[in-house]
Amino acid sequence: MTQPEMRLLWSDEFDQPSGTPPDPRWWSYEVGGGGWGNGELQVYSDAIANACHDGQGNLVIRALAGDAGYSSARLITKGLVAFQYGRLEARILLPRGAGLWPALWLLGSTIDTQPWPACGEIDVMEYVGSEPRRVFGTVHCPQHSGRDGISGALVATEDLADRYHVFAVDWSARRITWSMDGVDYFSLSPDELGKSWVFDHPFYILLNLAVGGWLGGEVPAATHVPAELKVDYVRIFAPPA
């Protein structure tokens, strides 16, 4: 039996002229440094140099190195786009090089009244350049946060930075399932998390490219900077009827 076609709720296809910033209808910036709780090296900025369209259908988040250190971008849809249940997917070309740590993730929209991790976090895609064939997904929630988050991983037969991949989560009241290129590799249910399951309210989207940190690791001289995370699209689909 064929699966019913999913109904698109929202998307950003990034079909904007070269050098234009992320669409302000959907995206805003989180800026600043200080390690972001993970010992990260970059300062996030709202500069065009760190996040813009390339005119070829991609949003490019770019890590740069300068006299003051590394800069990059962290984009969020908080207050602009959020959803509860359904499918989030994005087609992404990952950067190459140890010390680079890109991510596509979700945070609970209740974060201002229920600070992390009580708001919940779903990491749709994380990747560290020192493990070029491994992608992983994680949840952070009460009793399972930070280094104690619950993760699953997929190890590919080729370097993930060689070509674009589609990263996704399918999220319902009963289960969260992670996939890459249509292959499921990890799943969690409320029965497995018990009272720690806080994934029953709207979440918003984040996209970022971190440098270094406790997970990203050291940045060796062989890692090429500028480094680019290219995003072809981000789409939200309605849950099955």
Automatic annotation (TrEMBL):
<protein>
    <submittedName>
        <fullName>Glycoside hydrolase family 16 protein</fullName>
    </submittedName>
</protein>
<keyword id="KW-0378">Hydrolase</keyword>
<feature type="domain" description="GH16">
    <location>
        <begin position="1"/>
        <end position="241"/>
    </location>
</feature>
<dbReference type="InterPro" id="IPR050546">
    <property type="entry name" value="Glycosyl_Hydrlase_16"/>
</dbReference>
<dbReference type="InterPro" id="IPR013320">
    <property type="entry name" value="ConA-like_dom_sf"/>
</dbReference>
<dbReference type="GO" id="GO:0016787">
    <property type="term" value="F:hydrolase activity"/>
</dbReference>
<dbReference type="InterPro" id="IPR000757">
    <property type="entry name" value="Beta-glucanase-like"/>
</dbReference>
<comment type="similarity">
    <text>Belongs to the glycosyl hydrolase 16 family.</text>
</comment>
<dbReference type="Pfam" id="PF00722">
    <property type="entry name" value="Glyco_hydro_16"/>
</dbReference>
